[in-house]
């Protein structure tokens, strides 16, 4: 029997709940991005090398990526509200501990806690979008969610840099951690998991977890979404979270103010390009994978020009490269729209968790490899790295772009064949410009 609907879908209450959940996501992105402008200060505070500096963000993303599958299962079981509250607690505690950390191991543990809390947020918000909004509203709200969340990156690039300068490390990070306490109260009072009296959560026993995940992972649509997220997201994440700021300041010789401004401008560009991308994806659902590949190509071309330029590339070319890189964030949101076409509603938590693993796995591997290459090129610490060292290190991105594009095209073919077999008429529907959302009947693991 269907659960009784007690609230309107896609109306005022839905928007209020989404705005509150979005605020939590913005805070999560802020905490995630906070090391981007604090990296140079952190290297001095803890007296660490580039590889050790990368450990902060790599470990944070290892925890984030590693928790996506169990968080997806818990999300399907307990709902978004409980996961948002749990994530807020972990992020607040982690950021507060980071503020007072005096040693490198303590700081690393604090960032791991931040990563664990962060892991619970985004897919919880996406699940709220899935159940609270109409099918025709879903793609745009999903895109706007990802784009608006980047306001946290703007806050990390600008206001946090100011706070660090004015208040110092401890007071700046302690102040920002207090925001989580306010949002805990708001989420507890406002967020509801579903517009229905009884949400269709899935009670999964531990012994059934492996089979459950295998079923969702066996769907080629899940893998298509994961690889789409993998190839489009990592470059912008690596640039914004860790290596972009040192590359601009230490490598290209930009001032700290100019570097912070570019990071904020990248986020603004992501919003603009994301809105355009959302309209394009809505009009051309059959070509969503090709749109992702097109964005990746648009990133690769200016990066190649910057890295091959003799000496420091001109400012205009660096800006073009940065804006193209920023477009990868909106392109990564297309991965979750792809999953909607292949996944029943009761499996969306697990599917989105697996999809979300892609970009962050690529990000953490890229961040770590960049740090390793820098240390192999020059072992004297951050001050010893030259522009050529940074260029060589940044070139590791090509490995992940190439792998990702090959896998997207591979699973696009498998996904089309899967839909044509299991849902006759769905391919023609998408070619005609009409969205196809999984009807929610049964499981479709392969």
Please give a structural write-up:
This protein is an all-alpha fold and 446 residues long. It has a single domain (12-193, 213-431), classed as MFS general substrate transporter like domains (Growth Hormone, Chain: A, Up-down Bundle), CATH 1.20.1250. The protein has helices at residues 12-33, 35-45, 50-78, 80-100, 104-118, 122-132, 138-149, 151-157, 159-167, 169-177, 179-190, 206-218, 220-251, 256-283, 288-308, 315-326, 328-342, 348-377, 387-394, 397-422, 426-431. The chain is globular, with a radius of gyration of 21 Å.
What's the total helix number? 21
What number of structural domains do the residues give? 1
Global structural class = mainly alpha
**Residue runs with pLDDT of under 50 for 5 or more positions:** none
Average residue-wise pLDDT = 85
CATH topology, by name, is Growth Hormone, Chain: A
What's the short story on this structure?
The chain has 21 helices and no strands.
Characteristic key phrases:
single chain, Growth Hormone, Chain: A, 78% helix, globular, MFS transporter, MFS_dom
Topology of helices and strands:
Elements: H1 12-33, H2 35-45, H3 50-78, H4 80-100, H5 104-118, H6 122-132, H7 138-149, H8 151-157, H9 159-167, H10 169-177, H11 179-190, H12 206-218, H13 220-251, H14 256-283, H15 288-308, H16 315-326, H17 328-342, H18 348-377, H19 387-394, H20 397-422, H21 426-431
Subcellular location: Cell membrane
Protein name: MFS transporter
Transmembrane segments: 15-41, 53-75, 82-101, 113-135, 147-165, 171-191, 224-245, 257-278, 290-310, 316-339, 351-372, 392-411
């Amino acid at each position: 029997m269907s659960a009784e609907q007690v609230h309107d879908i896609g109306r005022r209450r839905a928007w209020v709940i989404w705005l509150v959940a979005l605020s939590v996501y913005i805070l999560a992105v802020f905490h995630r991005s906070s090391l981007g402008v604090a990296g140079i200060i952190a290297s001095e505070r803890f007296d660490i090398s580039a590889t050790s500096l990368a450990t902060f963000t790599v470990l944070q993303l290892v925890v984030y990526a590693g928790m996506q599958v169990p968080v997806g299962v818990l999300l399907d079981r307990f709902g978004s509200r409980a996961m948002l509250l749990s994530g807020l607690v972990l992020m607040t505690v982690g950021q507060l501990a980071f503020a007072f950390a005096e040693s490198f191991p303590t700081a690393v543990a604090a960032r791991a806690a931040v990563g664990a809390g962060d892991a619970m947020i985004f897919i919880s918000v996406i699940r709220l979008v899935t159940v609270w909004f109409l099918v025709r509203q879903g793609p745009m709200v999903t895109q706007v969610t990802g784009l608006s969340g980047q306001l946290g990156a703007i806050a990390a690039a600008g206001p946090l840099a100011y706070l660090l300068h004015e208040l110092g490390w401890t007071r700046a990070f302690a102040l920002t951690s207090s925001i989580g306490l306010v949002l805990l109260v708001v989420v507890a009072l406002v967020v509801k998991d579903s517009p229905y009296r009884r949400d269709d959560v899935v009670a999964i026993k531990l012994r059934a977890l492996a089979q459950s995940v295998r079923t969702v992972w066996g769907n080629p649509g899940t893998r298509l979404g994961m690889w789409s997220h993998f190839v489009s997201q990592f470059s912008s994440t690596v640039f914004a979270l860790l290596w972009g700021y040192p590359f601009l300041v230490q490598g290209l010789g930009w001032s700290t103010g100019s570097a912070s401004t570019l990071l904020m401008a990248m986020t603004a560009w992501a919003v603009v390009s994301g809105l355009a991308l959302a309209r394009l994806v809505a009009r051309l659902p059959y070509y969503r994978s090709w749109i992702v590949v097109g964005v990746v190509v648009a990133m690769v071309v200016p990066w190649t020009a910057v890295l091959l330029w003799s000496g420091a590339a001109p400012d205009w070319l660096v800006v073009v490269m940065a804006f193209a890189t920023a477009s990868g964030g909106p392109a990564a949101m297309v991965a979750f729209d792809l999953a909607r076409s292949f996944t029943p509603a009761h499996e969306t938590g697990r599917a989105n968790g697996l999809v979300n693993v892609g970009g962050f796995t690529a990000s953490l591997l890229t961040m770590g490899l960049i740090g390793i290459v820098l240390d192999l090129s020059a072992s004297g610490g951050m001050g010893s790295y030259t522009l050529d060292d940074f260029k060589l290190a940044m070139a590791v991105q090509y490995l992940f772009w190439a792998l990702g594009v090959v896998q997207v095209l591979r699973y696009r073919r498998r996904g089309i064949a899967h839909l044509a077999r299991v849902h006759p008429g769905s391919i023609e529907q998408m070619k005609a410009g009409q969205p196809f959302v999984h009807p929610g009947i049964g499981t479709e693991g392969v």
